[in-house]
Structures are given as C-alpha cells and as structure tokens.
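Changelog entry

Holo records now carry the ligand SMILES as an explicit input line rather than a separate metadata file. Below, a converted record for nicotinamide-adenine-dinucleotide, shown in the new format.
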Amino acid sequence: MSILVTGGAGFIGSHFARMLVNQSASGGQTVVLDKLTYAGNMENLREITDDLHKSGYFKFYKGDICNRELVEHVVKEDAVDTIVNFAADSHVDRSIMDAGAFIDTDMKGVYVLLEVARNQGAKKFIQISTDEVYGAIPEGSFKETDPINPRNPYAASKAGGDRLAYSYWVTYGVPVIITRACNNYGTNQYPEKLVPLFITNAIENKKLPLYGDGMQVRDWLHVKDHCEAIDFLIRHGKNGEVYNISANNEHTNIETTHLILDELKKPHSLIEHVLDREGHDRRYSLDSTKIRQLGWQPKIKYEEGIRSTVRWYLKNEDWWRKIKSGEFLEYYKRQYEHRMVSKSAK
Ligand SMILES: NC(=O)c1ccc[n+]([C@@H]2O[C@H](COP(=O)([O-])OP(=O)(O)OC[C@H]3O[C@@H](n4cnc5c(N)ncnc54)[C@H](O)[C@@H]3O)[C@@H](O)[C@H]2O)c1
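Structure line, unchanged by the conversion:
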C-alpha cells in the first residue's frame, strides 16, 4: 500500500503517520502532504524524520490540498493507492472569527482530492469527518443514519466535505469511506483546544477560560484509539459507508477541567468562567455500534489517557512553549480578552 496522509503534520494526522511508519516493515509507503498552517508542525513528525534510516518508506511534501497539480504529482510520483484526508482547518472558534479558510480546505480541498482519486483510480479514500456534522443532541446518541445538522462554520464546511465524498462514491464509484469521530485528546495537540490549552495554562499558573457554565458534554476519544479505528476501516470498512467512532467517555467540560487540575495538583480557583462560545453545542454523543460490530473497540481509559497526556505536556515544554508565542498570543487575545472583561464587568 502507498498511503497519502494529508494534514499529516497536525495532531491526529501525525499520530496516524507515525503508526503507519511503525507498521511499514511489510513494505508499505507513507506519504504526507501538509500546508504547514499555524496548526501544522514538523516537530510532530520528528520521530519519523530523525529515524528515517530505520523506518520504512516516508516522504513529506509541503503544500496545499487545494493545489490540484501538486496533488496529482504526489499521487503519481509515489504511486499512491489510498488517501486518508485529515487536512482541515479544525478549530470551531477560528471558524467563527473567519470561515474563509474552512470553506477552502474543508470543502474545495476535499473536491480536489476526490477528483484526483477519481482520475488516478485510487483504491480507497478515507474522508475524516467529525461528530460535529450532526449538531447537538440533548439525550440519546446519533447513529450514522441520522440527519446531519451542522451548527457552526467549521461543522458546516466539514459536512460539505463529508457529503461531497459520499457523492463521489454514488456518482463515480470512488471507493470512499467516511469517518465521524468524537473529540480527540492526546499528545501533540495544538494548545488552542480545551485539553492542551488548560493543561499548559495550568502549568503556567494562568487562568483557564472555561466557556459558560462548563456543563457542555463531550465524548472523549484518545487519538491512538482513533488512529487504530481508521487503520481498521481501511482494511475492514465497506465502501460508501459512514462510521461513527467514539469511546463512550461522556464528560462535562468542567469535569475534564477538574481532572486536569487535580492531576497537576493545581487549585480549582484557576478556572475562570468566561462568556460562552456563540452557538455552542451543548452535547455531542455518538452511537458507534456499527464499527464495534465489525471488531474495533477503544482501549485507552479516559482518566488514564488524560493523565498520560498531562505527563507528556509536562515533559515536552519546549514543544508547546514555542507554539504559545507569536501567532498564538494574538489569537488568544482576540478570542478571550473581551470574554473575560465583559463577564467580569457584569
Ligand atoms: N481534533 C478532534 O477532536 C477531531 C475530531 C473529529 C474529527 N477531526 C478531524 O480530524 C482531522 C484532523 O484534525 P486535527 O485535530 O489533527 O487538526 P489539526 O488542526 O491539528 O491539523 C490539521 C493539519 O492540516 C493541515 N492543513 C490545513 N489546511 C491544509 C491544506 N489546505 N492543505 C494541506 N494541509 C492543510 C495543517 O497544517 C495541519 O497540519 C480534521 O479533518 C478534523 O476535522 C478532529
């Protein structure tokens, strides 16, 4: 197999690329294409690039999935037969500030990849979608057959890519599989998302800006379990199908925050409730019976997964301190400053 991992320098994509390279004793090829946006980080691939002589075939291309010529070149040059598309603008808050990049990458980029897959006769195309396409659910859990109802620009652009991929299966027979996973956590996650933001702020004794009452419910899936599920679906998934991937680890954001603070032995007084995210989905929940019936199940327990993630951020300060300067500071100020000020002014 020659697998193209788009967005492979990001959080989940880099875990997936590492997993593939470690498996590639069997002769498989791993090719990463990543634009290296603010969220892409070559450090995430260092284990592979430092050890290239020991690992299997690995190649990195810096570039945009919207660039059709480049995608065509990569697919031909490395005889790619399988595309796993992680590339995305992925942060809801940034999509609320400006949806432009989300429409480009999460919709047009998917179109370009699908066109190349169609013309080059790809054997498998995995579109990494998200639970957010379903929207919020007050009780019960979404099944793959439930209607989608995305409620923020990130979710809506992902829904566009998700349904476009499906249409390429129905219309052209491109062998597409669509995955919808719940919230991931683990090492190497850019510290704008809740878990790494709160871990790193707590290490720095800074306030943890918790949206609203913190009672939003998320189902937490360890990134390694997610990557194993994708690998499993490449081999056992059925073309044209959607698969939910979840761990049945539903927790309120305040519970997750407490777990992080307790692990770091930091006081709960570091929590600052701030004005909620606009249109914040209250609860996500997935029914993942379909993939479990095929034989996959998650292995990592939530409490242990959060603890080992906290330990990684403690040991890898170099990794996140570099990120939490420059562009990140500008974003953080823009996102949180007015929320903290207007809340305390009330
Ligand atoms: N993080 C989660 O909890 C979660 C849950 C479900 C699904 N997903 C999906 O998984 C995928 C990966 O998410 P993540 O959290 O690793 O995101 P991330 O933001 O950490 O990584 C995204 C990567 O894509 C790259 N990229 C962005 N635009 C690109 C473009 N135009 N061309 C090439 N590369 C580009 C970035 O440089 C970055 O390396 C996304 O599609 C996301 O929607 C994420």
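Spot-checked after migration. Residues 6-7, 9-13, 33-37, 39-40, 64-66, 86-90, 105, 109, 128, 130, 158, 181, 183-184, 190 surround nicotinamide-adenine-dinucleotide (CB under 6 Å). The domain at 2-186+220-245 is CATH 3.40.50.720 (Rossmann fold).
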